[in-house]
Structure formats: structure tokens, C-alpha cells
Amino acid sequence: MIDSNAKLQFTVNVEAGKMPVPLLKKALSICLTGLALAIFQMRADSSEKVAGLTPPPDAWPMFRGSPGLAGVATVPLPDSPSLLWTFKTGGPLKSSAAIAKGRAYVGSDDGSVYAFDLAKGQKLWAFKTEGPIESSPLYLDGKIFIGSSDSHLYAIDAERGTQLWKYQTGDRILGAPNWVKAEGKESPWILAGSYDFKLHCVDASTGKGVWSYETGNYINGSPALAGGRTMFGGCDALLHVIRLQDGQKIKEVEAGAYIAGSGAVVDDRVYIGQYENEFLCIDIAEGKIVWRYKDRAFPYFSSPAVANDRVVFGGRDKRLHCVQRSDGKPIWTFSTGGKVDSSPVICGNKVVVGSDDGRLYIVSLNGGKELWSYEIGQPITSSPAIADGRIVVGSEDGNVYAFGAKASRPDRKQKVE
Known about the structure:
Layout: H1 21-51, E1 72-73, E2 82-88, E3 98-100, E4 103-107, E5 112-117, E6 123-128, E7 138-140, E8 143-147, E9 152-157, E10 163-168, E11 178-180, E12 189-193, E13 198-203, E14 209-214, E15 224-226, E16 229-233, E17 238-243, E18 249-254, E19 264-266, E20 269-273, E21 279-283, E22 288-293, E23 305-306, E24 310-314, E25 319-324, E26 330-335, E27 345-347, E28 350-354, E29 359-364, E30 370-375, E31 385-387, E32 390-394, E33 399-404, E34 414-416
Parallel strand pairs: 1-27, 2-34
Antiparallel strand pairs: 2-33, 3-4, 4-5, 5-6, 7-8, 8-9, 9-10, 11-12, 12-13, 13-14, 15-16, 16-17, 17-18, 19-20, 20-21, 21-22, 23-24, 24-25, 25-26, 27-28, 28-29, 29-30, 31-32, 32-33
């Protein structure tokens, strides 16, 4: 990491002939590169201060990157990423990848969880469940945790791909699991919502239930965690605030319509969309809606990314929306050719998101202008995972795609079955 407060000291004396012109040019190039990286780091640091815990540059261990689900990455991306490799699964991909220790993990509608090498896309293992997988994997302490439509939450050895345990709920699990290190407990706890109306808390080591909290309808999204609480929406049209220690209700906030996506929690506020065309900012302590954003008559399934002063989210109106974090006033919108259920990721001054028009986009955070796009050709409802300078995203064509800096060797771009 570059210290943004550090001074770049560079002293030359051209008149005295101490530095030839070619060497001077090279030194200036190095300084400019360092300055560019410092500027990016200052932007990343500013997002990190806002979003709280963010993933390290070489990892994206869970849906939205961190337990607060803020959707912020801290690694620079190339201006024009190249396709590095594709990996074919046996069904459409709605699951979003997790990245850790040089590997990527993803679930598929074919019912399998896949692990593959991040550098080349080579398959390492596949683990079969009994139902389609829309849930996104969580990597934690050498294990993969993921839900399946077969109603089970699975713990899988991340190295070998073998089952460690499975925990049964009463219905399918479509949302991604989250985790917390419980006070006074050696083992972390895993949280996952189910269509049995319950949020389940499970011991990560044993797979035994710790507590469950019952709501009034399906839980489709992932719970966000902050300050000893978990916050999540459901098809009962409520934002639930639950104490993690014992699974007891702290409060409920009326959202006005059912919530299919996941919220992001930053500075004691939850940012979340609902089905009757509104995106909300909710103050957790006050238990009230601070502001509402309503544009056109289309719902919001996309989960937001939260930056220093703005919030970015997709809509079924085929647009990406950016609003002021303080009051929900619109800053810009970016139009695509299909609904945007994919959840954006903020990376410096770039926003990465997929669309049902079959394209992956990079958009300027400042002005909402398209900077780059890649046509896959089939809908992208999966959300990007960003780590180690790469973007990993799935498509409903059944492929995982990896983008990054163009490889120096011609065999780097390859397709792997």
C-alpha cells in the first residue's frame, strides 16, 4: 500500500549533466506511475473509511466482498480489461464468485459448486448438491459455505472439495451466507436466510444450529452484519434488525413492499431496494426511513454499492442509478439494454456491473459514463467479484468469465471445460 501522505522526492540537475535525458524520462515515468497509484489508493482508502471492513486486494471472499455487503473493492483495474479465460459449468449462473488464496469458487444451476484456479481458470474440483444453486459462496478459514435449493447449507473443504457437514432448513436457500465471530466463542457462526421464513445461525465448525429467527415470509437475500446486529429484508415487506448474540428481535421497519435483494449497512444506516419501485435509506438506531428514491415504475432487485458520498444500484428499468448518500438525490443514471439485477461493485472511480442485455460494463463513478463493455450475449444476473486485478462474473450461458490486464503470453487467453 502506498502512503498517500508520503512525499515523492525526486531531485535532478540537468544543467550539471548528472542525468541524461532518456534516464530523466524513465524517472519521470516512474514518478507519474507512483502518483497514479497513490491517487487510486486515496480513493480506495476513502471508500474503506466509509464502508468499514473491505476485502484485501487479492481476495473477494463472499457476496459483496465483506460482512457489511458494501460492494467496495480496493484493487485497481485496467482501463480496458481483456478476457483471460472462461470456465463452462452445466447450467445457468446466478451465483456470484468468491475469491481467496488464488482460487475462485462459484455455484451453478446444475447443482454443483466449482473451484478453479484464478490465474488460468483450470477446474480444481466440483461438489454436487441435490438442487440448483443460486446462493453465492462464502470462503472462511479454509472452508466454503453455500446454500442450495435442496434446502441445505453446506460446509465444504476449500482445498479438496469434500463435504464437512450440511445443515437442513425447511426450504430452499437462495441468498448468500454471511458470518460473525461471536464474542466468547472459538468458532465463527454462519448466517443464512431460507424460504422457510427463517434466518438460521449455525456453528461453522460443527454445523449445529445456534438459533433461528422466524419472519413472516420468504427470505431471498443475504443478511448484512454490523455492530453486533444483522439486518435483512424479506417478502414480508419488513427490514429486520436482529441481535446476533441470541437471535432476538431488536426492531422491525416497514419497507412498504417486499424486499428481494440484500441491503448494505454503513454507519448505522441500511441502503436497500424494494419491489414497489423505491430504494430506501433506513436509520437503524431510529428505526425509520431517512429518505426514499423513486424514479420510474420498476422494482429494485440489485444490491447497492456504497461509496464515500454516493450509493449505486441497478434497477429493472434497465438502468444503473447513482444517488447522494446523504439525501438520496439523483446524481446520474446509466442506461443498458436490459434489466440490471446484477449488483454493482465500486472500484476506485470505476463501477462494474452486469446487465440482462448480455454485457458487462465499467462505468465512471463520477459521471456515469461508459468506460468499457464486453458483450457476452446472454443475461448477467451474477454480480462481479473483483480481486488481484481481475473481474470474475458468471452468465446465464453457464460460463464463468475472467477479465484483467492483457497477458504477455499468447496462451493466457484460453477456454477451459
